[in-house]
Structures are given as C-alpha cells and as structure tokens.
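**Backbone geometry record:**
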Amino acid sequence: MFADELSAHRYLERLLWPGGVCCPRCGNAKVGRLNGASTRLGTFKCYSCRKPFSLLHGTMMRSSHVPAHKWLQAVYLTDGGTKPMRPYHLQRILNVSLKTASSMMRRIGEAAGSLSPASTAKAPPPAAPTPSLRARPARAALAATAASVALAALGTCLRFAEPILSL
C-alpha cells in the first residue's frame, strides 16, 4: 500500500482530513492543490490567507527530506515508538543513513511519548483558543489517532512485505 510516495500521501490526506482539505493556519476549506512541475507532492495553497502549506505540516514528518512512505514504514516497524529498535536496523531496512534513522526514531519516540497517558496527565491546561488557531485542535486530535490508525493499516499492508524489508 505504501510502496510509493503518492499512495502514502493519499492515505495521509484521508487520515488527516476526512471531511476535505482545510488550511491549518486559518481553518478555511477553500484550498487548492499545487501541481506544478517543480512543486513537491502534497502541497496546497489556502485562498483565504494566501499561504502554501504541506500535507505534513504540523506532524512529526515536517521539515524532513525523508519520503512519507518511509516514515510510515518506520512507524510500523517501531510499533509507533513503543518497540525498541536500533537505528542500525532501521537504517538497513529503510535504506537511509544512520543519522537519518536515528533522527526518525527520536521523532517517533517523542511523538509516542506525547501520546502516553502519563505525559498527558502532567500537561498544563490548554490556553484559550484564538480565532487564527481554529483548525489546530482538530488537527491535534487527528494526529493523536494517526499513529494508531497508521499502525493498523501498515500492519495489514506490510505483513507480507516483512521478509522483504528485513533483508
């Protein structure tokens, strides 16, 4: 299912925005997809605030040059950051550098730590929402379930690919 970047982006788009794409800055649903030859895959432009944004904006995959399908495979292989795995093994499986594998594992671990019940009990109460941040609570709730849904989907899709990935 996640053999290429396009299928991973389609899956993440359905997961993050089940009701349709909306701007993470202003929450407006009047958004257009940028499909230029030099434009990265998964780039959108809001017609209200006139700013471009990425599908990966606000996720643990932001500001990363690693393709989204490798991120999803890493989430599956580490069980969402709960399964101990050495960066060397992740490096060999995903065909990335050791530094990249370490960074990916650190980000996945931080995301898993922020979702644990112990960390949410110690968190300070949320500040009052501002009008410009309307879409962020919904996106945070979707991001919280993204790891568990991604694990379930990847578990079914990559179960047959495990012998190939563990070469």
The chain is about 50% helix and 5% strand.
